């Protein structure tokens, strides 16, 4: 009996709430002369204020289930809205604004049921959907076409060749950095340094490679500027042909490689090819200069790595001897010697000495 009474009370509260909302909504005072959009914004503000009144008046009294309110509100709202729909539209809006409202809701183009149309109107009052109906201007995305077709004029042929050359350089850029610059020696020496210290993964490989790349750009900057001024820039200005530009741009790199290549390594490839000895550096082709430079760089990097190992090897031997004398044969010597090796490397400013010697070692 108690539950039935409580249920009836809740049902009565739901009816009162729905009647209050509908009656209050359809007793709005006529608007003053204003635009169509301002009237909709005013209705939206009114709906928000009435919602606050409803919450303050009914919700604190008893728990209001959603199903009671929704069923009652839907029934009362349909009756009141159907009776007062035409009257209120004529009262609050002009006929032109009423037609504009139907156009905005696509009533002429879409056969929207009455319930969906009502939901659209109340969704507009609650969330302000009309400002979002403005369509954004279409964004034009530029198209990129890298296809190569048969050229009709010499100018088109030059453009096609430029595209091919740029794509080829982008593909071969990592290999060119490895074989024609100082990157190889720097990367190998830094790897030897980390192994000699025994720090395993510290510094990380990414840090060592990045440091080698930065130093490579620093060392090769004069060579790159010379290649740009002699070969690339005149070719872009259409002052020289492609063959001349390639020869002039590769000449600074070839001179750099020959200055840092041993004659013994260079003579090895001439002997393999059974070619006569060159008279000048201009007579040395790139097919011989590049492999001779790579072998020479490997030999130089291994020599520097051996010299790096010597002081740290002495520390390992001293620590091992001390541990043996103390009878601590089960303790790994590397664990004890690592802090001392790092300390010695920091005290002598090892990075300053090593990087300075490496950079100054290139001619």
UniProtKB/TrEMBL annotation:
Lineage of the species this protein comes from: Bacteria, Pseudomonadati, Campylobacterota, Epsilonproteobacteria, Campylobacterales
Keyword presence, Transmembrane: yes
Family named by the database record: Belongs to the FliP/MopC/SpaP family.
Compartments it resides in: Cell membrane; Bacterial flagellum basal body
Bilayer disposition of the protein: Multi-pass membrane protein
Keywords noted in UniProt: Bacterial flagellum, Bacterial flagellum biogenesis, Bacterial flagellum protein export, Cell membrane, Cell projection, Cilium, Flagellum, Membrane, Protein transport, Transmembrane, Transmembrane helix, Transport
Pfam families: FliP
Membrane-spanning intervals of the chain: 116-134, 154-172, 301-326, 338-359
Organism: Helicobacter macacae MIT 99-5501
This protein's record includes keyword Protein transport: yes
Gene Ontology CC terms: bacterial-type flagellum basal body; plasma membrane
UniProt function note: Plays a role in the flagellum-specific transport system.
Name this protein carries in UniProt: Flagellar biosynthetic protein FliP
An example Gene Ontology biological process: protein secretion
Signal peptide start-end: none
InterPro entries: FliP, T3SS_IM_P
């Amino acid at each position: 009996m108690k539950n039935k009474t409580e249920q009836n009370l809740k049902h009565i509260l739901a009816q009162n709430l729905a009647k209050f909302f509908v009656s209050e909504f359809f007793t709005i005072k006529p608007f003053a002369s204003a635009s169509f959009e301002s009237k909709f914004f005013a209705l939206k503000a009114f709906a928000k204020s009435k919602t606050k009144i409803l919450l303050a008046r009914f919700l604190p009294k008893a728990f209001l289930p959603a199903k009671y309110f929704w069923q009652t509100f839907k029934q009362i709202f349909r009756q009141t809205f159907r009776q007062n729909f035409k009257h209120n539209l004529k009262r609050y809006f002009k006929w032109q604004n009423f037609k504009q409202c139907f156009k905005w809701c696509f009533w002429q183009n879409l056969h929207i049921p009455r319930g969906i149309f009502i939901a659209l109107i109340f969704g507009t009052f609650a969330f302000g959907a009309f400002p979002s109906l403005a369509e954004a201007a279409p964004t034009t995305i530029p198209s990129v076409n890298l296809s190569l077709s048969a050229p009709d004029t010499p100018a088109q042929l030059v453009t096609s060749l430029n595209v091919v050359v740029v794509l080829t350089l982008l593909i071969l850029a990592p290999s060119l950095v490895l074989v024609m610059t100082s990157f190889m020696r720097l990367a190998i020496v830094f790897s030897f340094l980390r192994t000699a210290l025994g720090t395993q993964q510290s510094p990380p490989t990414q840090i060592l490679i990045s440091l080698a790349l930065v130093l490579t750009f620093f060392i090769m900057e004069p060579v790159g500027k010379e290649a740009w001024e002699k070969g690339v820039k005149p070719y872009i200005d259409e002052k020289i042909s492609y063959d001349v530009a390639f020869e002039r741009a590769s000449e600074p790199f070839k001179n750099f490689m020959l200055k840092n290549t041993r004659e013994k390594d260079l003579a090895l490839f001439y002997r393999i090819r059974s070619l006569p000895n060159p008279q000048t550096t201009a007579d040395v082709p790139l097919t011989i200069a590049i492999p001779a430079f790579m072998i020479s760089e490997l030999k130089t990097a291994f020599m520097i790595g051996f010299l790096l190992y010597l002081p740290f090897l002495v520390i390992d031997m001293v620590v091992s001897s001390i541990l043996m004398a103390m009878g601590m044969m089960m303790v790994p010597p590397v664990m004890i010697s690592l802090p001392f090796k790092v300390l010695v490397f920091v005290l002598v400013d090892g990075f300053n000495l090593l990087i300075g010697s490496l950079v100054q070692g290139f001619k």
